[in-house]
Specification:
The chain is mainly beta. The chain has four helices and 29 strands. A six-stranded mixed β-sheet has the order 10-9-12-16-14-15, with no helix packed on it. A six-stranded mixed β-sheet has the order 20-19-22-27-24-25. The termini are far apart. Bound molecules: CU-O-CU linkage (C2O) and copper (II) ion.
């Protein structure tokens, strides 16, 4: 009798827990729904771009001639700019000696335009082309790069920035910094040994020459008291940057494209490969000042750039802080909810490079020659419009910036402790032995990549697919 009573209460509580979890999920999905479902009114404008990937020779780094692979003959490639509501149409041509694709990192777009070989399109063979077309839906700083042999193709210089402007962009000058690092061989050219055993045993290919927009330690001119919107992208294969902005009046106003909930402190902001940050930066009112910006992610600091403060200009003096009005849900009940999917990150011997990186013990490789009938099927699925929690459990000692295509997520816990980041992301750095919980409401249907954005880990198998149904 007594026993039965307890069992009864037990089942009752389980039922209650399950039903309150379902309520909490529904409530949290509702919290973000209007933001995530939002679509700008089409402007009727079409931004037409011709984009060609080809080997070329450029004056780069410290002014040397460097053999690179480039989009439209420059590294970084061209910056594509559109206004929210525009249609972007890119006529892509592959003049590389290898197959490639163009992936639009961080963008919500139709799955077929996502640029993943053997998943959303056949790879674009040398000499061939592909037309990418999608709506410029969410304003922000995004980028594009190949999704084939990333270690080599990004490592040789293939990447560019895609900026989607707000309907009414803040009235300030913009500066764009694309961060990268380069590994050179004895001849001073790009080291052609990609995905080495040592890269795989560590955090990918870290180069010794660091550049901002292809140039080593450039000087950036600002007027005294000038306010700028500084957009920064980390396009490196593996290196993480932590630009030290202490002593500067700088606030984070967007992360991975989307506006933050409020201006956030720029102190300690980290950019793992793939991450972007938008800063509201106010130049100090001291003409003649010269301010180095130092990367402090590694023990040995790296000089990124120098800000040179010129004379004040009248028209820049009185500008107000940049206002972007982002929406980021609080998702306070996230903690009590079990993750739908867990991704354990680890390595094992084997595979084409001798060491392979795995997600839940599985590897995935892109095969650029796969016929459509053999396109890869996702091992994981999420329901569109439903709140879900994903857990990344890093069982290794290395870094893994985990990136999910086509959706935005929010970090809700690190090592079991609740976190409220006040911004969205599409890439989150998971450190050695760390567990990171992220939450999202998937909105875009299709088969989406989930992978480590360290190109060498990715090329050595650290990818999987999540279907949004
Ligand atoms: Cu920038 Cu699949 O990544
Ligand atoms: Cu990794």
């Amino acid at each position: 009798m007594r026993r039965r009573l307890w069992v009864g209460i037990g089942i009752g509580l389980l039922g209650l827990a399950a039903c309150s979890q379902a309520d909490a999920r529904r409530e949290m999905a509702g919290e973000a729904a209007s933001f995530l479902e939002r679509r700008p009114a089409p402007t009727g404008q079409v931004v037409e771009v011709r984009l060609t990937a080809a080997p070329t020779r450029l004056e780069l780094l410290d002014g040397r001639m460097l053999d690179v692979w480039a989009y439209n003959g420059s590294v970084p490639g061209p910056t594509i700019r559109a206004r929210e509501g525009d249609t972007i149409r890119v006529h892509f041509k592959n003049e590389l000696p290898q197959p490639t694709t163009v992936h639009w990192h961080g963008i919500r777009l139709p799955n077929g335009m996502d640029g993943v070989p053997g998943v959303t399109q056949p790879a674009v063979q040398p000499g061939e082309g592909f037309v990418y077309e999608f709506l410029a839906r969410d304003p922000g700083t995004f980028w594009f790069h190949p999704h084939v042999r990333g270690s080599e193709q990004l490592g040789r210089g293939l990447y560019g920035v895609l900026i989607i402007e707000e309907a009414e962009p803040p009235p300030v000058r913009e500066i764009l910094w694309v961060l990268d690092d380069w590994r050179l061989d004895e001849s001073g050219q790009i080291d052609p040994r990609f995905v080495t055993r040592s890269d795989l045993a560590h955090d990918g290919r870290w180069g010794s020459v660091i550049t901002v927009n292809g140039v080593q330690a450039p000087q950036i001119e600002l007027a005294a008291g000038e306010r700028v919107r500084l957009r920064i992208l980390n396009a490196a294969n593996g290196r993480v940057f932590r630009p030290d902005l202490s002593g500067l009046d700088a606030k984070v106003i967007a992360f991975d494209g989307l506006a933050t909930k409020r201006p956030l402190p720029a102190e300690g902001v980290e950019l793992a490969p793939g991450n972007r940050v938008d800063l509201d930066l106010l130049a100090p009112p001291r003409p003649g000042a010269s301010i180095p910006v130092i990367d402090r992610f590694t023990r040995r600091p790296n000089h990124l750039a120098t800000l040179r403060i010129g004379e004040a200009k009248e028209n820049v003096a009185a500008s107000k802080p940049i206002e972007l009005r982002g929406f980021v849900p609080a998702w306070r009940r996230a903690e009590a909810i079990e993750p739908e999917l867990e991704f354990r990150l680890n390595a094992a011997r084997g595979g084409p490079y001798g060491l392979q990186w795995m997600i839940n013990g599985e590897v995935m490789h892109h095969d650029a020659d796969q016929p459509m009938s053999e396109w890869q099927e996702p091992p994981y699925a999420l329901r569109a419009g439903r709140w879900a929690k994903l857990r990344f459990t890093n069982e290794s000692a290395r870094l893994h910036p985990m990136h999910l295509h086509g959706q935005f997520f929010k970090v809700v816990a690190r090592d079991g402790r609740p976190v409220d980041e006040e911004h969205w992301r599409d890439t989150v750095l998971v450190r050695s032995r760390e567990t990171v919980d992220v939450a999202l409401v998937p909105t875009e249907l299709g088969n989406w990549m989930l992978h480590c954005h360290i190109m060498e880990h990715q090329d050595a198998g650290m990818m999987t697919l999540v279907a949004v149904e």
